[in-house]
Design a protein that fits this description.
With 238 residues, the protein is of the alpha/beta class. The protein has a single domain, classed as Acetylglutamate kinase-like (Carbamate kinase), CATH 3.40.1160. The chain is built from nine helices and eleven strands. It is globular.
């Protein structure tokens, strides 16, 4: 299936992806590989906005299930995303990729405050913009942040990086007979309860017609394929 070429994209990277095989913390070797992929993508002239999760350091929902106040746990999760964003910024800038981190929670010594028009201007100037601290409010995931920032930046696609090459009928790591979708509608994702992104993020994308492409972050060159319009992963659209 032929796909559109994309000029401006929102890349969503999970915190767990930065942890590598350790499953916790930040693996600098993995970070280096991701930075190389982003640099190669930027070299094509693509404007790149990024949202990074914080699950490799702290996950608010998990803290809440263990008795913590949900709002407090979510704020801790937001701070975890800041650590990941600063690590990714450092990895990119060591490769001469100009990068700006904007935080939804003000911390001026570390990052710019989130200002939509300023973020758009950074993208227009060819800088990579990394959005930290979620939306700045509890009860919203970084998936929802990715959908929201993607629309605010007028991105043409939300690129959801995962550890598998698309959306399957079941977890392919547990079910060998799982079948991969080449394309699927937003409504089907919601109705089938597929764990692609949370329902709020999917609904936001559906209401604003922002396509989502789920692809394998570990596949070399996968980002370039997505942006070039080559069939890879699974596309979620209307």
């Amino acid at each position: 299936m032929a796909r559109e070429k994309y000029k401006r994209v929102l890349l969503k990277i999970s915190g767990e992806a930065l942890a590598g095989e350790a499953g916790f913390g930040i693996d600098t070797d993995v970070l280096d590989v991701i930075a190389n992929e982003i640099k190669a993508l930027q070299a094509t002239g693509t404007e790149i906005a990024i949202v990074v999760g914080g699950g490799n350091i702290f996950r608010g929902v998990k803290g809440a299930t263990k008795g913590m106040d949900r709002a407090s746990a979510d704020y801790m999760g937001m701070l975890a995303t800041v650590l990941n964003c600063l690590a990714l910024q450092d990895a990119l800038e060591r490769k001469s990729v100009y990068t700006r981190v904007q935080s939804a929670i003000e911390m001026r010594a570390l990052a710019e405050p989130y200002i939509r028009r300023k973020a758009v201007r950074h993208l227009e100037k060819g800088r990579v913009v990394i959005f930290a601290a979620g939306v700045g409010s509890p009860y919203f995931t970084t998936d929802t942040t990715a959908a929201l920032r993607g629309m605010e930046m007028n991105c043409q696609v939300l690129m959801k990086a995962t550890s598998v090459d698309g959306i399957y009928t079941a977890d392919p790591k547990l079910h060998k007979d799982a079948v991969r979708f080449e394309s699927i509608s937003y409504m089907e994702v919601l109705q089938k309860g597929l764990k692609v992104m949370d329902s709020t993020a999917i609904t936001l994308c559906m209401d604003n017609k922002l396509p989502i492409i789920v692809f394998n972050l570990r596949e070399p060159g996968a980002m370039l394929k997505v942006v070039a319009g080559d069939p890879t992963g699974t596309i979620v659209h209307a």
